[in-house]
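Shipment paperwork, digital attachment
Item: protein structure file
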Amino acid sequence: MEGKNKLIVHGLMKVNDKFLLIKRTEIKRGKPNSYPLYWDIPGGMVEDNELPSEALVREAKEEVNLDVSVSNIIHEDSNLDINKGIVFTRLVYLCNVLNNDISQIKLQLDEHNEYRLISELSEMGSEKIVPYLEEIFEEEKHLVKQKTR
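Attachment content:
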């Protein structure tokens, strides 16, 4: 059996100097969601003939109704789903929100049912967060320190 590759993009977005997190629903389009009720950042699958940055702009509009410009990649990880025979690769970009008006945020309710703006991940307390989010916040802090040197 020949394996397949799927590319996923996510965006670490700042709105009014706070990071945007969204909470996954239990059910997504009638099926159990992956990481149900976990906090995540906006993103999704790259479609055929679509550039990753274009996919992220599209996903940001679909999931949270925000217009973004895509900056640099701050994280990459891959994993093999043996049951599906697919290697999933995730790219996480820093994004600039073009309009910092939080009243513009409208969630795609069949995928996410809540959002939160935070300064640091520690503000989430005991809430469930997707596994890669801690790495992303560490990488973002490292980037900020490099820029201030």
